[in-house]
TrEMBL record:
GO terms for biological process: regulation of DNA-templated transcription. Residues 9-123 form the Response regulatory domain. It comes from the Bacteria. The lineage of its organism: Bacteria, Pseudomonadati, Pseudomonadota, Alphaproteobacteria, Rhodobacterales. Signal peptide: none annotated. GO terms for cellular component: cytosol; protein-DNA complex. This is Response regulator. One of its GO terms (molecular function) is transcription cis-regulatory region binding. The modification 4-aspartylphosphate is found at residue 58. Keywords: DNA-binding, Phosphoprotein, Transcription, Transcription regulation, Two-component regulatory system.
Length: 184
């Protein structure tokens, strides 16, 4: 997809600042030239300027649908490989994403290695399923704990970011800590 002497480019369109920054660092560490944006409008401008080799696109952005970005990328650069990354997955949206040209549709949280495997999988071939798949409850727990840690364990701020009542977050955190085995 790219010359051997240049880094592959990837557009990350994600409105969750924490997740976008984490993914940006992970992809940069793995040899990608990253362009990270937070909106459909910014993504479309980035594609119009110099369309990337790859794109990781959140389905729901503040100013519209990530599907619009997939379509814009396909029109500007048909050989580019895009995937939809979302916490709001459903079958009709996954089908629409693939019809528009996305190579895959992954649920958050997804690891950088999983994202790269999906982006670089040969056409018509899906990457192997994870050896140790994460259960939905565990994924939710990890996301909540990650957001809580990212805001310096500030319950009020984490609850706002998670769109959750403060007391509900406190109960979840208490339950998660009670579920952990005690080790010496």
């Amino acid at each position: 997809m790219t010359d051997f002497d240049t880094q592959p480019t990837v557009l990350i369109a994600e409105d969750d600042d924490t997740f976008r920054d984490r993914l940006d660092r992970a992809m940069t560490k793995r040899g990608f030239d990253v362009r990270a944006v937070a909106s459909v409008a910014d993504a479309e401008r980035a594609i119009a300027g110099d369309a990337p080799d790859y794109a990781v696109i959140d389905l729901r952005l503040g100013d519209g649908s990530g599907l619009d970005i997939v379509e814009a990328l396909r029109l500007r650069r048909p050989d580019a490989r895009a995937l939809i990354l979302t916490g709001y997955g459903d079958t009709p949206t996954a089908v629409a994403a693939v019809k528009l040209g996305a190579v895959d549709y992954l649920a958050k949280p997804a690891a950088a290695d999983e994202i790269i495997a999906a982006l670089e999988a040969p056409d018509g071939q899906r990457p192997a399923p994870p050896e140790d798949p994460i259960l939905p409850d565990d994924a939710r727990r990890q996301h909540i704990e990650h957001v809580f840690q990212e805001v310096g364990e500030n319950v009020s701020q984490a609850a706002r970011l998670l769109n959750m009542h403060r007391r509900t977050l406190q109960r979840n955190l208490k339950r998660y800590n009670a579920d952990r085995p005690v080790t010496d």
